[in-house]
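Data availability (excerpt). The following record was deposited with the supplementary files.
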Amino acid sequence: MRYSNILTNKKTAAVCAWFIFELCSAAMCIISICKGWCMGVCLMAAVFACGATVMTFHPNVPIKAQATVLMLMSYINVFTCSIMEESIYNSVAVFIEIALVLSAYRDTKLLFWYIMLVLSGVVHHIVAMTDINLSNGAEITKFVVRISMMITALIVLYIFIEGLNTYEKMLIQSVQDAKKAEHSKADFLANMSHEIRTPMNAIVGMCELVLREEDLSDNVRSNCCCIRAAGESLLAIINDILDFSKIDSGRFELVPDEFNIASTINAAISMAETRRGSKNIEIIVNADPNIPRGIIGDEARIRQVIVNLMTNAVKYTEKGSITLTVSQTRQEYGINLFVSVADTGIGITEEHLDKLYTSFYRVDTKKNRSIEGTGLGLAISKRIIDQMGGFISVKSEYGVGSDFRFVIPLKVKDREPFIAVNEPQNVCAAAFLDTDGKGRRSARNLEKMEDMLHVEIMTCDTAEKLKAAAERRSITHLFVSREKYMENPKLIGEFAETSNVYVVQERAGAVTLPSNIHCIYKPFYSISAVSAFNNENIVPSRNMQIKFTAPEARILIVDDNALNLKVAAGLMKPYRMQLFTAESGAKAIEMLRSENFDLVFMDHMMPDMDGVEATKIIRSQSDDRFRRLPIIALTANAVNGAREMFISAGMNDFLAKPIEVAMLDKMLRNYLPKRYIKTAEPQKEAPERKKEVLV
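Predicted structure:
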């Protein structure tokens, strides 16, 4: 295969031909000096050798021009040698030179004219330059043999070149057939992506809108959570298939941008909590607060890898713990981001370790048949990490657990820590929890946070020790486990009168707390602690927390599906923007001509006029506001090449369905005029329920 590639690469072959011609010309120069030929022949050969040397380093000269020049120069060599002396060089070496020249270009038309040129030179040599004695049978035989050798060599060469050309045509046809098959596969995936993701957008989106209601019963809320979780699981499978298609076709791309690692960690924890369900698993998070606030990378892909490792850990772990560790090492170019996901699950045997990153491969399929998954997650994760310039590894002991780790290099825009305590010198915290089992792990985490956050944290496992600590120091913040709170409600209530008290508990089975005692849902880690020390609201809302509004912004949403319009408008409603809808591309153009808008969300596949056509028409308008108007592709078509197609059509960005709230928030921040963005007022929390339901 490697040989065939060389043969079909004309530029490579041309360089080789020039190099061989250079050697032949140099040999001719040396022969002319040794045999005492005229100085002109020597100079000509030297010039040819120098010219060939130059051409080997300039392969970008048109192939046709190279072939013609090389053909003429080669013929001059042949003709000159035949004039100066009849030798074996003229009958063998010259043929080799001709063969190398012509086999490099494989041009049958050029070969024909070259044959004519060579034959004319031979005839000229016969008539004008040689003295053949026709009565001498030996001379006649010698002449006929030489002519026959030349003609035979040229015929063989012609057949050889024709064979190469035929082979090349076959290869080209095979490539074209493969491209057609790839195009058909891409069309199929595009259609399937659109047909599946469109109803998924409605399912997941409507669940999100329902869950934002505050007066839902626990049963309705629980059922909606189950529907959304199932929809997200199906969506994850679809995304894995699409990502695999992108990687397989070599069109997988990274979109680096500045991001905060806090959102990535929170997304991974949220997904792991959702997948955990009723399993008796403790999720532990160790996040280095000194990670820079502004790091540059493809946040969506980094989050995808972490989420995949976390969900895999949940799948294969029935009890124990899952520990997510995120840290960094500083480098000249920025940082090396280190991520580890360690679990106490089933582990992996030695024979399966080498196959982990193979596509569609699953560990111990028979034993783990009930565990969902496609076998693509780790293969995709590895390729993402490889493309980022990092590496991924795993340490595992069968029956004990596994530890997946990856390191990626990232540039840094803002080196300030992504979380920090505002006034660490004024903070004195105490932790009231058991020091055995899970409590011991919590205590160790608090000790790490004490060093990293530069605050004092005292750990107490009995009420007496807590009282003694309060007598020594004035406690500003008290963290209490759910069990310790239920054992000592009166004591904790007394602390709440003078200190900030936080009960750390699981969402499921969470206890109702008095108004002066706060709640922190597990996992409790550095982000939660810093929020508590800075007196920020750290209880996650059932509703999405909107951090900004834009009441003056005018948004146009274009989609032919009424349900999708309802979902998109519902997700954007908390931003208090002025929302307008259009059911087709033609209607959108009509509205844009008569009204001003600040941002357009454009669906792709619509009847009569799709989103791409509509965008091209909008960009072609003479008014400058149509060229400056941000247009975001809002589509279920998320296959490889979709983003490039939308950008080339004149759109500014791409937002896939089902709509991810975090990505929607990012798009609005990036493309709305800054003067319209206003800080949102804190949203009111729904009343606490006796039984917390995981959302």
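Summary of structural features: The chain has a mean pLDDT of 75.
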